[in-house]
Amino acid sequence: MGSAKTGRARKLSVAITGPTGAIGLALVDLLEKTPEVARIVGMARSPFDGSARGWRKTEYLQGDVTDPDDVRRLVEGTDVVVHLAFIIIGDIAESRSVNLQGSRNVFETALESSSVKRLVYTSSVAAYGFHSDNPTPLTEEVAPRGTDRFYYSAQKAELEAALARLMSGRDRPDVYVFRPCIVAGPEALLLIENLAPFRPGTRLPEPLAGMLRSVPFAKPILPDPGVRLQVVHQADVASALAAAVLGRGRPGVYNLAASGELTMTDIADELGWYSVPLPGVAVEVAAELVAQVPYLPSGARWIDALRVPVIMSSDKARAELDWRPRYDAMETLRETIAAAFGRGEL
Ligand SMILES: NC(=O)c1ccc[n+]([C@@H]2O[C@H](COP(=O)([O-])OP(=O)(O)OC[C@H]3O[C@@H](n4cnc5c(N)ncnc54)[C@H](OP(=O)(O)O)[C@@H]3O)[C@@H](O)[C@H]2O)c1
Which residue, judged by its Cα, is nearest atom 20 of ligand 1? Predict the structure, then answer.
């Protein structure tokens, strides 16, 4: 990276949207310790004190990616832009504004800037969509089709297409797009939070509720449709993104998943919960219902992810970026559950 010609590489200034999220915290922690990075400027909406976390190179701006002026303020004079700000689970109208308009603001500002040489964007495994004809494993050559009724998935596919259109005919900045699977870890508890519908007292759609009622146990019960899941540790996502920040490997699309796969029974076992096998047809029916039930939080739409296996190969990241994830799937799950217990989330 930088100038072999001058013998000394200029240190990088890195702009990050969403530095206070699950991936952002791990990425900033890592870049703080990366000698090639001189300055980090992060932006999210809530007040946040990075110095309380020991951040020394990082300046925090309170701002919103839906406001083009805020985005310009963030990106101005930086060498690399990392776009993480997103609404993963939430109100659909807010998600459209933040995810679609906010991301376009970030992409366009990075592309128009004369200083930005790299744009790093975290898409998701969800961009592929949850289709029964998906190949296993999914490689980066497979076109992201999204799943229309799962807005997060549809938006991720739409944004990858929008970014490709914006980049068409351009040779800079270099663009790295990452497609992580479920991100977990001590500060990434989404996986655990998504199990909330299975706690006692939550209304589930039939026939799921009926099936689970028929099992007379006091502990929560997770349905297991037998579909395998991938997870990746937040620190390992950070190390892949940091490689892109430094311009390692070739720009392009990279899947990110830890080695090993999990089932809902593995998750139930680690939680000390019960699991019951759920026939595929019940998952289909439940997914249809969940898609239509307005009172269920959008998080319950996770069930779409359990209809078909969506398993990715991360060989490209390992080969191109020399990505060496430190945690396998089971280690990631155990750390996440331990943190969730520690924080009283379970
Ligand atoms: N977590 C996963 O399992 C996973 C898996 C695959 C891909 N990804 C992708 O990776 C990226 C980062 O995910 P994450 O898990 O770190 O998300 P996260 O934990 O939900 O954090 C989201 C971050 O974005 C900020 N943000 C949200 N709306 C914003 C806005 N309008 N303007 C500025 N900042 C805003 C949030 O802070 P404020 O709310 O304070 O603004 C927070 O810092 C997302 O694109 C996500 O889709 C995540």
Answer: 21
